[in-house]
Amino acid sequence: MALLEIQGLTAFYGDFQALFGVDMTLNEGETIAVIGANGAGKSTLLRSISGLIRNAPGHIRYDGREIGALPAPDVVQLGIAMVPEGRRLFPSLSVEENLLIGKYGRSGNGIWTLDAVYDLFPVLKERRHSPGTALSGGQQQMVAIGRALMSNPRVLLCDEVSLGLAPVVVRDIYAAFPRIRAAGASIVIIEQDIGQALKVADRVYCMMEGRVTLTGAPAALSREDIHAAYFGAHTQ
Ligand SMILES: Nc1ncnc2c1ncn2[C@@H]1O[C@H](COP(=O)(O)OP(=O)(O)OP(=O)(O)O)[C@@H](O)[C@H]1O
Ligand SMILES: [Mg+2]
After folding, report:
1. CATH class for the domain made up of 4-87+155-231
2. Pocket lining: 143 vs ligand 1, CB cutoff 6 Å
3. For the chain, which residues make up each domain, given as ranges?
4. How far is the CA of 129 from the centre of ligand 2 (A)?
5. Residue 24: is it exposed, middle or buried by C-beta count within 10 angstroms (0-12/13-18/19+)?
């Protein structure tokens, strides 16, 4: 049985329909990547899983139970944590306070403590008393990931962790993922850099205009297929 199973998921913002019957599976221990152009519905998918937007019930199963109608705090409590688009740190709080916030939603069993997060991202220990706003973009992203890990999630949802960061910083951030996996988390990564997505993921989902247009293991996907699924066949 899959850890997370999404079937026929739709999502709306008012009258605007953003998802049209999305199917997706995340198996225990797996890392999957979701790629797609701006507005494809990637963030809406993650917001639906994490309970931040309301969806029709009956389309999201996690660990054998239906969670599609649960509010966000309950979803966190069950072990699904999100690293949101844009990082969303609390600007008046220090690095350490921002990290500790992640523990309040859930302090599940697992290896992730303040010390473990500092071991993963040593620069955060040096800067632990600095306000979140005094950090570089890459350091802020590390705090956002660390904050999510502090709940010891079984599922980690990451929305565009590399956006706007220099390649060397992106490399540092992605270097953390093998350790996050090894600690037992199953991971969903949203990534606009297709090369990065293919490198990190066991399976990739491509979305376009609110639908999944392609899915498979990286080695099974051709550049042509990805291009067509990402931009639409007619634009080639
Ligand atoms: N709060 C909102 N209110 C109304 N429409 C929204 C809202 N958020 C997103 N949308 C619309 O829903 C669609 C999907 O947006 P979403 O943010 O999920 O895309 P995305 O794939 O994450 O894009 P990006 O790569 O730009 O982050 C887009 O057409 C977007 O304009
Ligand atoms: Mg988005």
Report:
1. alpha beta
2. no
3. 4-87+155-231
4. 30
5. buried
